[in-house]
Amino acid sequence: MLPLHRSSLYLKNLLIVKRLKADVIFNALHGGKGENGIVQGMLDSIEIPYTGSGRLASTIAMEKDLSKNFFRAANLPVAKSIVLNRPGASRKNIKSLKFPLVVKPNDQGSTIGLYIVDNFDNIEPAIEDAFRYSSKVIIEEYIAGRELTVAILKERALPVLEIIPQHELYDYECKYKDGMSSYQVPADIPNELANRMQAIALKAHRTLDCSGYSRVDFRLDKNNEPFILEVNTLPGMTGTSLVPKAAKAADITFNSLIEMIVED
Hints:
Layout lengths: L8 H12 L11 H4 L2 H8 L9 H8 L1 H10 L7 E4 L16 E5 L9 E3 L2 H11 L6 E5 L4 E8 L2 E2 L3 E5 L6 H5 L4 E4 L6 H17 L5 E8 L5 E7 L9 H8 L4 H10 L1
Antiparallel strand pairs: 1-4, 2-3, 2-4, 5-6, 5-7, 5-9, 7-8, 9-10
C-alpha cells in the first residue's frame, strides 16, 4: 500500500499512513531508519501509536557509543572501547585496547561493516570500510566466548538463548539464512548465571527507557562473565529470529507474542 517515493519516501508515506487512520502501527523495520528513532518521531508527530520503544530510546540504543555510556553509568558490563568521530581522527587511543579488536559502524546492526582484527596492519582497511556506513566508528576489545541473548517482553526477561553460528562470528549470513546457526533455549548455563543475565538485560532495557519488547545481546567470556553488546529496540521477527524462539520456550505462541506487543 505504500509506494516507494525515492526523494521523500518517509514524508509522503507518512501522509498515506495518516489517511489510513490506523489504530496502531506494528513497526517491524528491524535496523536502519526504522529502528533508529526517525520513523518513531514521525509517527509521534501524527499522533499514531506504534509498537516498540519511543524515539529517544530507539536513537540511543542504535548509537553504540551513547548506549555504552548509559550502561557504564548504570554499572552494567561492557567491553572496553573507543570511538573515532571522523576518518582522519587520531588513532593513538587504539593503543589502550588489547587485540583482537572489533571494528564496526557506530549506528548499524546485523554485523554490517563489522570486522575482527588481530593486528595494526589490518585495522586501517576495517576502519575505512566501517566509515562507509556511519559517520562514527567504534572500536572495542573482542570478547572471545559464547553468543547469548535475552529478550524482554513487557518488563519480563524471557529465557536466555544461546546462538551457535556456523561461522566464527554471528554474521549477516548466519542471522538470516536458514541452517547457518543453531539455537539452544534455555541456554546450557548455570541457573545462577541465567538469572544474573536476565537481571542485567532487564536493567539495560530500563536504563535506555525501552518499552514493549527488546532484545539484549551478550558475549559470555571463558570465565562466564557476560558483556552487553547492544540492545535491539526492534528485534527481528523473521522465521530465523530469536525473540519468537525465546517466547516459545516461555510457552508464548507467536500469535500471543504479537498480540501482547500490540496490546502493550
